[in-house]
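hey
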């Protein structure tokens, strides 16, 4: 049985992520989506909220599960008997950093990284850009599942009105 992990921040999950996850689920027996806690980044959604959103959007994919992890990705892989990471590559600009991480993860724990070419229509898509555009009122409805879009617009309105602070992953993880 081949179990792989699709790691990321998923703040929030986009159609670009879902495309890679869906295609990976056709190749491997089990795909685990791991929401990685990033201590440096402040996020729009808590890890729990991201997990809930992802679960909602992948419920049609029977061999896909969702989890979270704080720490090294290779430690997650070791703890869960995962031998490979699947990542989408959007453009050459992704390549340098992704290659470094892939080589480091291989060196650290023998965990392999498989890169999947993003479909061209998603090559410019990122969670950060989507959040930025939506913050200024731009239309990002083509890039996110409807449930995620609605939650993001609600959260951005809360942030704008001051009723919701930015989430620090660290705080939400109870540290
Ligand atoms: O969606 P992102 O933010 O581009 O995902 C990056 C992520 C979370 C996959 C990457 O930062 C990561 O693997 N973080 C876990 C910590 C870790 O293992 N760092 C060492 C990488 S060699």
């Amino acid at each position: 049985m081949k179990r792989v992990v699709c790691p990321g921040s998923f703040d929030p999950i986009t159609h670009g992520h879902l495309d890679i996850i869906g295609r990976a689920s056709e190749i491997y027996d089990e795909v685990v989506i791991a929401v990685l806690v990033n201590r440096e980044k402040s996020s729009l959604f808590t890890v729990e909220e991201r997990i809930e959103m992802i679960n909602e959007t992948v419920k049609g994919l029977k061999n896909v599960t969702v989890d979270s992890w704080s720490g090294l990705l290779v430690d997650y892989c070791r703890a869960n008997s995962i031998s490979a990471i699947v990542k989408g590559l959007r453009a050459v600009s992704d390549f340098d950093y992704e290659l470094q991480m892939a080589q480091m993860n291989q060196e650290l724990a023998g965990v392999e990284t498989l890169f999947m070419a993003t479909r061209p229509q998603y090559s410019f898509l990122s969670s950060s850009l989507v959040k930025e555009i939506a913050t200024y009122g731009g239309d990002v409805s083509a890039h996110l599942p409807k449930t995620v879009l609605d939650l993001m617009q609600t959260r951005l309105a809360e942030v704008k009105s001051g009723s919701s602070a930015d989430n620090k992953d660290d705080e939400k993880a109870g540290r």
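Residues 100 and 106 are 10 Å apart (CA to CA). Confidence is low (pLDDT under 50) at residues 171-175.
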